[in-house]
Each structure stands twice: as structure tokens, then as C-alpha cells.
Amino acid sequence: MTFNPQEPYNDLPLLFPDEKYWKTIEVYEHTNNANRALAELKGRLSAIPNPQIFINTLSLQEAKDSSSIENIFTTNDKLFKAFTSSDLTDKNTKEVLRYGKALVSAFNSIKSGTVFSIDIIEDIYRNIKDETDGIRDSKVIIGNAFTTVYTPPCCKDVLLEKLNNWLEYANNQHDIDPLIKLAVLHYQFETIHPFKDGNGRTGRILNVLFLSSQNLLDEPVLYLSKYINEFKEEYYRLLREVTESNEWQNWIIYMLKAVEETAKHTLNKVLGIIELLENTKDKIKSVLPDIYSYELVEVLFTQVYSKYTFLEERKIASRNTASKYFTKLVESGILEKEKVGNEFIFKNVAFYNLIKE
Ligand SMILES: Nc1ncnc2c1ncn2[C@@H]1O[C@H](COP(=O)(O)OP(=O)(O)O)[C@@H](O)[C@H]1O
Ligand SMILES: [Mg+2]
Predict the structure, then answer these.
(1) Residue 74: which of 58, 57, 84, 61 has the closest Cα?
(2) Are 177 and 31 in contact (CB under 8 A)?
(3) In this structure, which residue's CA is closest to atom 8 in ligand 1?
(4) Which ligand has the nearest atom to the CA of 102?
(5) Is 172 exposed, middle or buried (0-12, 13-18, 19+ CB in 10 A)?
(6) Which ligand 1 atom lies nearest to the CA of residue 201?
(7) What pTM was estimated for this model as a whole?
């Protein structure tokens, strides 16, 4: 097979790649390590009373990292602000925020038992890109102004054939470790490249959905984009090498390491957040016993910036009381008051500092 980067790669082989390309001792060992780290994360999370409170923050971090791989940049502060208050948001921050929403909405479908489908994949793409089209029916290229490194298959009928084969592997059980399937599915999705843009981000959302569909995670908390962003050049090179020379082993190991490292990192992060939450709880109990409730502390950790309505919605306080609570929390140094547009929002200072580390 001679691969020509200038021509649509309609010869992209259907799944699954022959074992001879990837069934090695090294892959086996990395698979074990990644599974072990993941199982520990899953186990420790299941002992936490309300792991859902981390979802917003972690999914926003993922949105930021995944978009940053595609040179769509925003800052933590802008993103957290925009999450709480829809006022005054720039184009990139909006796009990153859409990624977060696309992720959570697709995760909920998969969690409720929906299988992967063209519709779900198109929805993710449309949500991220704020577009109405779907699978492309025109040619795209990967590369820069000087060189084309890869031309994905074309057009719609070919893409649908490849995607249906992808879906068969994503939805059915096979005698292959799910983490190896994850790596292969991610390569295959990126190589199919079904949309005119947004393929990287859609594919990275599919990664976390796939993990949860395999019961490897109960909550959407394992996000590989931070790792991929850190080793971005390798990510591109390894994707290319699978296409050019069936170099599956290195690609799969890369993804397994991403899972292992990310599981460990996420566990540390979550433990750090819990510790801070406990400390904050103790502090409020001792300094502001008259306003303390566990629900109040939880709200302050559900997102970085809070506002009055969050307390009203959860029936913790009326609008007036909420304002008194926030004033006291500001006086005791836990929150910082800021004005965005014409509303006040309150930053959980220690939480913010911990997240951005
Ligand atoms: N040689 C390659 N083969 C297959 N996929 C690639 C290759 N190089 C890059 N990619 C994938 O393409 C993504 C970028 O595609 P794009 O549609 O622009 O996504 P997004 O808009 O999310 O940036 C990269 O993040 C990567 O996953
Ligand atoms: Mg792009």
C-alpha cells in the first residue's frame, strides 16, 4: 500500500488492526498500568459523597485544554466567569464554553444508555462549532500552507462507511481490552475526520464517553487533553506514523500512558479539592457558624464563581439572605466580590488558586 498524503485516504483500513501490529509485551504492561490507575481513580471517587460537584470544574479544564490543542485560547478566569455569568464573553471563551456543554450533554446521553450513533457524534460537533451542518461532503486537508501531511477520506458515502464500522467497534463487545480499543478508536476517528472542522475536539469528547460506556468511569472526570496538549507534537507524529507505516504499538502506548498519567493526576486533583472543601467547611463552621450549612459549602465548590441565584435555586437562602451570606464570606476572606456587566459574582479564592495550579 503506498500512502499518498495528497490524495483522500479512502483506503483507510476498516477496524480492527491486525494483532501483529500491537500485541506486544510492552502494550500488555502499559495496559495493566493504565487499568490499575483508572480502577484506583474509580474506586476512590465512588467513596466520595458527591463527586458530581467536581464535574463542572473538571469539564471546563478539559474544554480549555482540548481547545488549546487547536489554538483556541482562553484563560481560566475568563472561562470560570463566563460559566457563571453569560455577560461579556469573547468569541474564544464562548467556543470553549460550548465544548464544555457539548461534553456534559453527550455524557448524559451515553450514561442514560444511549449507544454511539452518527446523530450523537454530529450533535457534539454542532454544539462545539455552533454549526448546523453534519458529516462533510467535501474535501479537507491536514497540514499548513506549505505541506499537506494528510488528506482524509472523501466524501460522504465513504465517510459513512468508515463511521459505521467505527460505531460497530464502539458499541459492541470484542475480545480486546477497552483501553486498547480507546486508542484505536481515537486514531480511527481522527483519520476519518468526518467534519470540516472540530474533529480533534469531537474525537476527544468521544474518548471520555467511551470510557464511561465501558464502565471504566462513573462520572466524566478523566480528560486526556491536558496530557495530549503537553505532548502535542508526539500526538501528531504518532497519528501520522500509524497511517504511514502501521506503527500501532507506539500510538497505543502513548494513549495508555495518557490514561495512566491522567488518572493519577485527576486523583490528586480531586483529593486536593476535597481537602480544601473540608478545610473551608471547618473554617465557615468556626468563623461564621450562623450561616453554615453543608449545602452552602458545596455550592461554593460546584463552580469557581457563585452568585446569589445559586443559593436561591437550591433553597439555601432567599435573595436578601444570600446577599448577607456572601458579604460575610467576603469579609472572612473566603470569597472575592467582582462585578461582571451588571451583576455581582463571587470567586472562591482558594479553590480558584488550586484549580489553576
Ligand atoms: N496526520 C493526522 N492524521 C489524523 N488525524 C490527525 C493528523 N494530524 C492531526 N490530526 C487530528 O486532527 C485534529 C485537528 O482537526 P480539526 O478538524 O481542526 O479539529 P478541531 O477544530 O477540533 O481543531 C487534531 O487535534 C488531531 O486529532
Ligand atoms: Mg480546527
Answers:
(1) 61
(2) yes
(3) 236
(4) 1
(5) exposed
(6) 22
(7) 0.96
| pLDDT for 286 beyond 70 | yes
Q: Measured from the CB, is residue 240 less than 6 Å from ligand 1?
A: yes
**CB-neighbour burial class of residue 146 (10 A; exposed 0-12, middle 13-18, buried 19+):** exposed
Is residue 176 within 6 Å of ligand 1 at its C-beta?
no
Exposed e or buried b per residue across 321-334, where buried means at least 16 C-beta atoms within 10 angstroms of its C-beta:
ebeebbeebeeeeb
* 199 ligand 1 Cβ < 6 A: yes
Shortest CA distance to 51 belongs to which of 205, 222, 208?
222
Say whether pLDDT at 218 is over 90: no
C-alpha distance across the termini of the chain, in Å: 47
Q: Where in the chain is the domain with CATH 1.10.10?
A: 288-356
Architecture of the domain defined by 288-356: Orthogonal Bundle (1.10)
CA of 198 to the centre of ligand 2 (A): 5
Which band of pLDDT confidence, cut at 50, 70 and 90, is reported for residue 98? very high
Identify the helix (H) or strand (E) that includes residue 91: helix 91-111
Residue 350, C-alpha cell as written in the block? 482558594
In Å, the largest CA–CA distance within the chain is 74
C-alpha–C-alpha distance, residues 112 and 107, integer Å? 9
- Correct CATH for 19-268 of 1.10.575.10, 2.60.120.280, 3.40.50.1580, 1.10.3290.10: 1.10.3290.10
What pLDDT is recorded for position 1?
A: 58
- The answer to whether residues 270 and 221 touch, using CB atoms and an 8 Å cutoff, is yes
Residue 199 Cα, ligand 1 centroid: separation in angstroms? 6
Q: How many CB atoms are located within 10 Å of the residue 308 CB?
A: 20
Task: Return the ligand number nearest the Cα of 203.
Answer: 1
The answer, yes or no, to whether any atom of ligand 1 lies below 6 A from the CB of 64, is no
CB 86 within 8 A of CB 345: no
Q: Give the number of the atom of ligand 1 that is nearest the alpha carbon of residue 240.
A: 1
- Residue 201 to residue 213: CA distance in whole angstroms: 19
Residue 88's pLDDT is 67
The residues, any chain, with a CB within 8 Å of residue 132's CB and separated by 6 or more, are: 126
